[in-house]
Design goal:
Chain lengths: 335, 326
Amino acid sequence: MLNYAIRRLLIVVPTLLLISLVIFSLLKLAPGDPLSQLPPAIPPEVRAKMRAALGIDGPVIVQYLLWLKQFFVIEPLHGFDVLFGTHFSDGMQRIVSWQSRGPVFSVIAERLPQTLLVVGLAYIVGVLIALPIGVVSAYKQYSMVDQIGTFLSMLGLAVPSFFSGVLAILIFAVYLDWLPTIYNTNLVVNNWSSFLEQLRQMIMPVMVLAVQTTAYISRYLRSSMLDNLGQDYVRTARAKGMDEHVVVFIHVLRNSMIPVVTVIALGLPSIFGGAIVTEQIFKVNGIGALLITAIHVNDVPMVQTLTFIFAVLIVVFNLVADLLYGILDPRIRYD
Amino acid sequence: MTDLLSHNEPKEVAEALVSQAPTSNPLAGVDVLEPSSRNQWWDVWDQFKAHKGALAGAAVFFLILGGVALGPFVWHVSPTYIDFMTMKAGPSWAHPLGTDQLGRDLLARMMTGGRISIAVGLTAMIISMFIGTLIGVLAGYFKSVDGSLMRLTDLFLSLPVLPLLLVGTMLFREVVAKILGPEIGNFILIVSAVGLTSWMNTARIVRGEVLAIKQREFVMASRSIGTPARRIILRHVLPNVMSPITVSATLQIATAVISESVLSFLGFGFPPDFPTWGRLLYDGIEYMQDYPQLVLWPGIAISLTVLSVTYIGDGLRDALDPRLRR
């Protein structure tokens, strides 16, 4: 297992390098000059200085390596400095956003909590709803509950979040007037009423994101449970006179959770992608919204870094899923 | 399979002849045989029919397809005619789905929008199926390229698809539009972007199937008589992986329609003069509080298309797998 884990970790490095190259070259290949909007009266030497300030002078390969160094060395060092009060990264050039002229990572650090709060909570809620649905619809296959569960999860997968979100706003905010339409990021939670306000504004974005997770995970758990329910060890457990609760929840559910746990790990990055849409609908000021505005104003360093962070999330959670699978299921040996 | 049939059928014919008309012309047996010798697709259709959801899905999907393809020939109202007298009107006989903020007929706009949306879905599906099948067959059949092609697939699977789609369509939109014109340029850009980022699952499925089929006797027999690889792939391997490809093609339409509408919804898809369903929804949000039909109809159309296609895929999966056939 350790052997496998190390090998698996080593694959991550070239994968990340290749992805960073893909992202970098896509943005480099794109036509358009960031200085094209400036007045033509600017003398060439000033223009060259501006290019240098933006970090777009010099050969492309140097720019790429510089960006890699900034992403993998300087930014982590800076993070270390902030945490422990050291001064390793002093005087080093951090990745600077073209629109705010500030370090990209401090903007991301400002926006990340909103995304994590909504996305994380949505994922937890989605999984928590999915588990009982999956168990019941497998245990009572083809029953009413199962049929409804199947239809609802088909619906959950078919109705795109941009429509379900808009529908939710229409019903719960416009007609019923129960919930606010827009997520207020400036809300400070310091007492009961503001906490309730925070809860109320989070319900819709969280539920819209959670529906998709629920649909996906409950389907998966159902088929995994069905596979296990027909196995011999279940018959043995029942023959021993075990309580049906014990059979289902201790024996079957535990074994069925093995593939489901890895699916849960694999699905986490994709929900960050879904958050881009959800943040746009509910006006949540998170990293999805940050990406959209950065693309619109052609803020290349910000776009590059954010896209790469999404890629890192995917690669890391793939790794986590693979390792979890090996740890949870001792029958699976990779070497 | 064909062996079994040829052994069975003569017996049936003989029994039928004996029991029905012992003295008739032996050629009459051909007529008796005719209904029972049927194409395997009839079996698939029989199984497909048994899946009620799939049948309903197919009905709805062909209704939508017919509506957007033939609708404009029946419904002559122009989707771009601006009429300030009937701005944001509700449903009426003149405008069954009402009108939008500029008084344009929503039904006509839904039809032209649906044409683009579904055309994007189908074309992106074809591109993604082509790449996926090509890579899957090559990786499964030729051991020498298997490793590198599968690493490529893994790499594509770890790309952040939505951010890259957004970045790609935004950055290259103007250039492509300048060369090919705004409508065709956008169409090709979006279709190829969606197709290029969605072939990976097909490639994996096809590779697995090809690996299994490659070990079967008929492929080995064919290889032993010196058939070139190209012929084996086209005549023996491809027909046998058609069923997983069909299922994944169906589901791919749904994915492509959603991807296109997400792009349009975020404002990165087609320009407002070519309203796809996603774009109509996006444009309608501003007026949603007072005129919900502007977002409801496009949203329902997208959801119905995706739902029906998903059900068709589900039914096809059951129908194409002989082991599941009742």
